[in-house]
Amino acid sequence: MKLDLPASMCTGATLDVFTALEAKGGAGCARFVGGSVRNLIMGLPVSDFDLSTQLTPDDTEAALDAAGIRNIPTGKAFGTITAVVDGETYEITSLRRDVETDGRRAVVSFTTDWAEDAQRRDFYLNALYADIRGQVYDPTGKGLEDARARVVRFIGEAEQRIREDYLRILRFFRFSAAYAQTLDAKSLEACIRLRYGIDGLSGERLLQELIKMLVYDGAPTVFNRIWDAGIMSHILPGLRYDPAQSDVLARMVQATSDIERRFMALLAQSYDGLAYFNGHVSAVNDVLSRLRVSNRARQRFESVVKVRRAMEEGYPLRRVLYDYGREAVTDEAYLTHAQTGADLAGPIAAIDNMTVPEFPLTARHLMAAGIEAGPYLGQTLKRIEAEWCAHDFSQTVIDRALDELGKPPKISGE
């Protein structure tokens, strides 16, 4: 099968890389592989121009050096050299066979056999290759079929593919969320049987896959299957699924593309997530630690809890915005919408249109009133700010405080 390659696959930088490799290994020694070819067949946007080559990593480096192309041995032990041309990067991986696998990493050797390289890949629709002339190659004989039918299936024996790398369980669900209409039954059964293998994976790898999966609008349906299948207890250990919350992620996905908000909704599909966001101790903190969720994201989640508590205590919107910021209050509105189906447009409009006051005093003003720098100055500033907030940001509070401190020049505030 031959296709007309889009201009994005035939840039001058791309042609330079292919020319360099073919000068060393002959015509056809390098091909596009995986995502770009799969998406081209499926009529989807094409990106991530990964290449495979019959050259060894040493020969790949030599070929690029001879052509004056900068290259980096990003994963040389596994056959990957990254070429950099005009700011574009190309991951070039030598054809491989797995010598030994332990469910997390593999020991590989290199080959020149395209079919052998294809057989060690995860899914049929990812084992497609195309040369720079547009000729498509399907060594397994099933890649084109699955790409056209939008089916995600493990190559060969599903359990064998999974035992080679248990992260492929999450990849199966991710690719299904992205491309498939339904989950392949045999592949799903294998994922369920071998779900215990997820326990040995690092939190960082799990989080990367979760984030990638949350990008897709098909994620809610797939995540509900993961919960139902008992697999999520290995991905987010300790969290107990609440079937009554099965629509939470779907509503969030429909409302926003913000990944951290979508992740909040995923957590909120569990009893423990409900408790966490309502300010109670739960297993969510342990899960966030295991996944190595960034401090920035954790602070964002914790701010939602604080906003909820303040609103439950009757604080007016302007005060909550002042205390916790517009992002946190907006996050809480989105999560409430996802959990309850409540109107979102009204709260968001109110948040966006509300002017947040700025505290008009600084340490400089108090020092002008005769207070020396030190702990007392900071304490006084905080005391005045607290009273100002408690009285709905009243200028009267500021004026009275300044009068008490010695009547310095009047400071204009809100």
UniProtKB/TrEMBL annotation:
Its cofactor is Mg(2+). The keyword NAD does not apply. CDD domains: NT_ClassII-CCAase. It comes from the Bacteria. Pfam families: PolyA_pol (PF01743), PolyA_pol_RNAbd (PF12627). InterPro entries: Bact_CCA-adding_enz_type3_sf, NT_sf, PolA_pol_head_dom, PolyA_RNA-bd. Residues 30-153 form the Poly A polymerase head domain. Residues 182-239 form the tRNA nucleotidyltransferase/poly(A) polymerase RNA and SrmB- binding domain. Keywords: Magnesium, Metal-binding, Nucleotide-binding, Nucleotidyltransferase, RNA-binding, Transferase, tRNA processing. Belongs to the tRNA nucleotidyltransferase/poly(A) polymerase family. This is CCA tRNA nucleotidyltransferase. It comes from Asticcacaulis machinosus. The lineage of its organism: Bacteria, Pseudomonadati, Pseudomonadota, Alphaproteobacteria, Caulobacterales.
